Structure to design on (482 residues):
């Protein structure tokens, strides 16, 4: 945002104009929250976030709202645009104390935004605690004060907002937990920063929305046949047949033309009975898997769901990675390398095709312990793991991060807590595999799969079980592709 700001100002738009536009967006949002004028308490901090607050306060007062403005710090200490905005505010700047929020109908939190540099303590912490203790709705300017915009984490204490207005683009902290929850409803306001500044910023962080990958989404043409749409091979292993079934069905729904499930002979009847369109092949040992890999039409491989832990699964992972095809590693395929993660990274390094890993937080910690303990940012954790392993990392959860070894990373926010149900991750792994079978590049396939999985979950909602997810995909895809 500093670069965006500087480039916009260099392009001829004065900084105070940006602040005026930001303040206006805040005032508009406040008016939306309280259409009938109520007393608004605007709590301003010592930097430009406070400057936005001064502008918002002035406009609300012009519109007939009784406004009380409180300032943390002294008016004389304000600098730059914030000092200009404060000059344009004709009213008082009160000290913020226990009594000042009494009788207010709305609080505007303009304490700290992008300039938060350390944990809140002392007077700033007390101010946030007072805001949170009041039962007023809270409108946060840019980010709820105390939330780190880069990581979404709380620096000591943070405002719990009802609504947050931010500018130009969302920041990671608006999408990552707990920041996203503390934002309440999010509003994105355009304040005059042109998109032309984006190349200069060169951000590698994205919101996982279809614009990021839609252009490369595979669609069949009149000339397509099932083999041109790709052939996914799901190694089922000997445990939990349901996991591989869910993944296989999801691969088909994601558009793979053919899906083969490889399972032990004793498990075959279960698969044959449950999956009509899926080809079922016996795999009782590693030779059987090697034999299945000989057919090069099987062009995307999934190992993990229901695979079982141990040497057999590790061997299958090595064989898959050595087979010159895109590979998805999930669940037991990940945990089986808990004591020898480097062996997995080496096998990945030897593959020149995309590899996608889909760990939840627990699996991630097992594989990337140092990274998990060394950073507070889910975004940077996923990025570091992608760089270390050479795989696209899908670090799952309500704020799933997809990170590529080339440092691109995308954060999703379209899922639903109803996805927290057994087997849901197996479906996700199956969707990724189905998209890789259709030659979607690794990062894009993983982003698209996470988005589709989230949409499918959200379209079902309460009562969702994982079996529902593959069958919700046609509706989601119809909306996406039309
Ligand atoms: N960029 C843009 O395009 C636009 C940006 N705009 C707005 O500017 C905001 C960013 O403004 P900003 O950079 O002045 O930082 P801001 O968030 O006000 O905080 C800095 C002040 O807080 C202080 N401080 C920090 N941490 C602290 C702590 N823990 N406890 C106590 N104090 C602490 C810090 O003090 P210092 O570290 O210097 O001691 C400094 O005084 C941005 O969020 C948006 O709202 C818009 O106007 C539109 C255009
Ligand atoms: N609270 C939540 N909000 C949104 N999505 C969630 C939430 N909890 C879990 N999920 C998603 O559900 C899936 C669960 O996967 P996983 O933990 O591997 O489950 P399983 O092993 O049972 O299949 C992941 O895609 C994850 O992102
Ligand atoms: K704020």
């Amino acid at each position: 945002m500093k670069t965006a700001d500087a480039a916009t100002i260099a392009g001829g738009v004065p900084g105070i104009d940006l602040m005026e536009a930001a303040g206006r967006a805040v005032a508009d949002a406040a008016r939306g929250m309280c259409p009938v004028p109520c007393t608004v308490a605007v709590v301003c901090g010592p930097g430009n976030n406070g400057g936005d607050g001064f502008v918002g306060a002035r406009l609300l007062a012009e519109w007939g709202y009784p406004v009380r403005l409180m300032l943390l710090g002294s008016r004389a200490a304000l600098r730059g645009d914030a000092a200009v905005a404060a000059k344009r505010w004709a009213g008082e700047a009160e000290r913020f104390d226990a009594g000042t929020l009494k009788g207010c109908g709305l609080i505007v939190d303009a304490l700290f935004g992008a300039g938060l540099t350390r944990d809140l303590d002392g007077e700033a912490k007390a101010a946030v605690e007072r805001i949170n203790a009041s039962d007023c709705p809270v409108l946060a300017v840019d980010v709820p004060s105390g939330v780190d915009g880069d990581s979404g984490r709380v620096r000591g204490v943070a405002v719990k907002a009802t609504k947050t207005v931010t500018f130009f683009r969302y920041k990671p902290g608006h999408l990552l937990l707990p920041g996203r929850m503390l934002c309440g409803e999010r509003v994105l306001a355009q304040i005059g920063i042109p998109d032309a500044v984006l190349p200069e910023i060169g951000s590698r962080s994205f919101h996982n929305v279809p614009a990021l990958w839609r252009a490369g989404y595979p669609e069949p043409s009149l000339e397509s046949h099932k083999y041109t749409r790709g052939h996914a091979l799901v190694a089922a292993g000997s445990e939990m047949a349901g996991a591989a079934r869910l993944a296989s069905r999801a691969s088909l729904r994601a558009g793979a033309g053919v899906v083969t499930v490889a399972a032990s002979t004793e498990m075959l009847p279960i698969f044959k009975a449950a999956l009509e369109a899926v080809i079922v092949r016996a795999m009782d040992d590693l030779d059987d898997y090697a034999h299945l890999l000989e057919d090069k039409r099987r062009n995307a491989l999934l190992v993990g769901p229901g695979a079982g832990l141990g040497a057999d699964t590790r061997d299958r992972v090595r064989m898959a990675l050595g087979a010159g095809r895109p590979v998805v590693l999930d669940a037991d395929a990940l945990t089986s390398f808990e004591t020898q993660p480097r062996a997995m990274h080496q096998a990945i390094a030897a593959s020149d095709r995309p590899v996608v890993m889909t760990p939840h937080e627990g699996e991630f910690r097992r594989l990337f312990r140092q990274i998990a303990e060394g950073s507070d940012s889910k975004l940077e954790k996923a990025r570091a793991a992608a760089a270390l392993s050479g795989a696209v990392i899908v670090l799952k959860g309500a704020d799933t991060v997809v990170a590529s070894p080339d440092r691109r990373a995308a954060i999703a926010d379209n899922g639903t807590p109803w996805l927290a149900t057994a087997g849901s991750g197996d479906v996700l792994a199956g969707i990724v595999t189905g998209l890789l079978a259709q030659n979607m590049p690794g990062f894009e396939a993983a982003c698209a799969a996470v988005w589709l999985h989230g949409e499918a979950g959200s379209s079902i909602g309460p009562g969702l079980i994982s079996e529902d997810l593959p069958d919700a995909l046609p509706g989601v895809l119809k909306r996406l592709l039309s």
Summary: Residues 210-481 form a domain with the UDP-N-acetylmuramoyl-L-alanine:D-glutamate ligase fold (CATH 3.40.1190.20).
